[in-house]
Amino acid sequence: MTQLLLFNVFNGLIIGAFYALMALGLSLILNLSGVINFAHGGFLAIGGYLAYTLNPYLGFWGALIVSPFLVALIGILIERVLIRRLYGRDPLYSLLLTFGLAFMIEDGTRFIWGAQSLPYQIPGWLAAPLSAELFFLTGYRVFMMLLVAAAVLGLFLILNYTRLGLRIRAGTLDLETVSVLGVNTRVLRNLNFGLGIYLAGLAGVLAVGMLGLQPTIGDNLIMPSFIAIIVGGLGSLPGTLAGGLLIGVASGITSVFLPSASEAVMYVMMAAVLIVRPRGLLGEEGRF
Amino acid sequence: MPRFDKRAGDVLIWALLLTAPYWLPAAGSYIELGSHIVVYALAAMALNFLLGYTGVLSFGHAAYFGLGAYGTAMTIKYLYPSTPLGMLVGVVISTLAAAAIGPMIVRLRGVYFAMCTIAFGQVFYFIAFQWRSATGGDDGVSAWHRMPLDFGVAKIDILNNPLAFYFFVLAVFAICAAAMAFLLRSPFGRTLLAIRENERRARFLGIPVDMHIWTSWIISCFFVSVAGALFALMNNFVDPRALRWDQSGNFVIMAVLGGMRSFWGPLIGAAIFLFLQDYISSHTENWMSFIGLFFVLVVLFFPRGVLGLVRRRSAS
Question: Which of A90, B73, B105, B264 is deepest in the core (most CB within 10 A)?
Fold first, then answer.
């Protein structure tokens, strides 16, 4: 029983880390540009498929490094051509646009790579369990946790100790003032979008190692990411991180006792947060 | 002059709707597409009650559409084979669900509201998908069909006669459209417009804004669930796709495409969208890409919609 519980808590942590990684990217974009990126799951899928294509040439590690950057480039391009035009307009339009993009990306990946799911090779030594006792603790899962932790740490270092991060944080609070102070906010939003999409791409590469590849892979991850943002609080990145881990672990623990409710528990948590504390756990009062 | 234009527009639209079954086949289409358009038009107009007239962005209306559809289908299949009873149960369940969820979200605004409606909408998709024993899971609720209407003195066979079914759908649509027009013209409806135009000022005037938005939300979900009930009857079938998030997106794009600031806009949007979808999906397997591209193009080049454009022309 303890082992089962431990297994599910650990599993929940991994899933939660994915939600958090997705949600952090979404949150970055939402906070600075006011855009809900519905195509985030699509970018995740692109990340996974690109890694699949690059794997034979660059190997597992090369694909892991290169693929998220390529996805971020695609994101930057799309922001530049399409999404930029919608800043300052009713959020309805950016929502519809990214909605359409999500359709196109899903269909595009199906067109290029096929509808059937594909296996993704990970190095043998990573796939093996670390000990016979804790069979679920494969090297890959531990590695994923470490990498997500590193990515989150990297993000917080960027935001806190670089000029770009400072500007992003300032822009989140008051973009107009930042613009008046001489920062090119177009470039800022563009780079910020790329940063958010990079996280989606990274989540994609990591996810396919565990879940395999299919065109709808992002669909199952995007709703929990929304919930992570709502639970954690809009406008707060630490909140988003906490929200992702929290709903992941909660659904992991629930799956021990009542497997069919493992997803429902996330929605229950969201409802509870909205009733008791509409701004979310760490959200600011009056921001939305 | 503008008043006359509006009348003429109303007359034209009703004339087109009443004669649709006669000219649709001639235009290379079929009566069922007409029913389809009317059902979706009702859903999009119901959404527009909230979106266009209250200024609140809901991206989760498919949930209440689907709940109405599932309620209708499951009532007819398991409880009692009666079309009106099924619709009644579906609409009541869906409206109650909307009323219960409302208080949690009406305090939120803008993007945050949209995000919460999406997430809550997904709850029902998830239930329909997981609760296999009752909803059939991914396969949906099948092996039932709509029942002929029995008024005692006369029987209308809406099951086997597509023409009769079209007029049945149109009659329900007409009642709902009239009710919505009445509500929008009432002091309540004017208050909603005031909230849309300037929420802060409305609040200063002592209007209980959250309460009004909640009421508007319930009304909107009520009408969308009527559309959902008709949708189930039309297909004699319902599956989780009826309440998935992409369905919500379809309603929103219909409203935007036709023109959010006009009463008939969503109807026109629905007609264009469904004709296009019908055409594209019969010509290519990659219809999803084209629909996605269509979303992008509408947003970039057509944000005011067809009627918005017409109005601007006539204003200048």
Answer: B73
Q: What is the pTM of this model?
A: 0.91
Give the gap in angstroms from C-alpha A196 to the nearest C-alpha of chain B: 18
Q: What is the pLDDT of residue B1?
A: 43
Mutate to test the interface with B, among A104, A105, A269, A277 (most CBs of B within 10 A): A104
Contact A85 B300 (CB under 8 A): yes
B110 contact residues in A (CB cutoff 8 A): 91, 288
Tokens 């109650």 locate to: B96
Task: List, for residues B117-146, the tens digit of each pLDDT value.
Answer: 988 888 898 889 888 888 888 888 988 889
Instruction: Please indicate if any CB of chain B lies within 8 Å of the CB of A83.
Output: no
Backbone angles phi, psi at A13, to 5 degrees: -65, -40
Among candidate residues B207, B211, B209, B250, the one with its CA nearest the CA of residue B227:
B250
* CB-based contact A95 B295, cutoff 8 Å: no
Q: Are the C-beta atoms of B243 and B83 separated by less than 8 Å?
A: no
B265 contacts B126 by C-beta, under 8 angstroms: no
User: Contact at 8 Å (CB) between B41 and B271?
Assistant: yes
Q: Between A185-211 and A40-81, two packed helices, what is the crossing angle to 10 degrees?
A: 160
pLDDT on residue B9: 85
Q: Token pair for residue B76? A: 């007819």
Burial B76-114 (b: 16+ CB within 10 A, else e): bbeeeebbeebbebbbebbbebbeebbebbbbbeebbbb
Q: Is residue B287 helix, strand or coil?
A: helix
Burial of residue B9 (CB within 10 Å: 0-12, 13-18, 19+) is: middle
**Which one, of A262, A227, A264, lies nearest residue A242 by Cα?**
A227
Joined tokens for residue A41: 């799951």
For the residues A73-79, what does the mean pLDDT come to?
A: 96
- Both tokens of A211, joined, read 């879940």
CB A88 within 8 A of CB A94: no
Q: What is the pLDDT of residues A205-260, one digit of tens each?
A: 988 888 788 888 888 888 899 999 999 988 889 999 999 999 999 998 888 888 77
A143-201, pLDDT tens digit by residue?
Answer: 888 999 999 999 999 999 999 999 999 999 889 999 999 999 999 999 999 999 999 99
Across-strand partners of B238?
A: B141
| Pick among B199, B296, B302 to test the A interface (most A CBs inside 10 A) | B296
Q: Do B288 and A96 touch (CB under 8 A)?
A: no
Residues of A in contact with B246 (CB under 8 A): 99, 103
Is there a contact between A34 and B111 if contact means CB atoms under 8 Å apart? yes
ipTM field: 0.88
